[in-house]
Amino acid sequence: MAEADAAGWPLVRVAKHCRPELVTNLAEQFDCLPAEPWEESARQAMLLPIPRPGLQGPSDVLVLGISPRRAFDDDYRGFFELAATHVATVLSNARALELERERAEKFAELDRVKTAFFSNISHEFRTPLTLMLGPLEDALGDPTRSLRGESLEAVHRSALRLLKLVNSR
Fold first, then answer.
1. What distance in Å separates the CA atoms of residue 138 and residue 52, rounded to the nearest whole number?
2. What does the pLDDT look like over 61-72, one tens digit per residue?
3. CA terminus-to-terminus distance, the chain
4. Is residue 22 classed as helix, strand or coil in its secondary structure?
5. Distance CA 71, CA 67 (A)
């Protein structure tokens, strides 16, 4: 570990090693920290790792200022750890929701592509079928119930076109 890393702001260490750290010299490192609702700002902060289940790399880090008006004891530390656990749960739920949203978008896109594909296919099939049905219906209405000449050729051409469409897909 580099000397500057050991002495400086420990965010990287906490994220990398997933161990909480207490920072005691906030006033020396930051000129202007918020002091609301009191007139004095925090002099210490607790840095707590927030694990990222299922994700590689360093953890997230929660930085919590320690009130100068209360001693930092085991109960205070326990409260911070509880807060970190809740934040980890919220972040995990948000990530899961985002993944679900992305998955839903992919399924919607797949559905759009599928719908467009079947729409095109049905249009391509409809034309030769319509050209076949016209002469066939005429033949069914004729007392001889037969196809001859141009009608027979049109049905044959349309059937060949339909067969070509089926074989090419």
1. 71
2. 999 999 888 999
3. 62
4. strand
5. 8
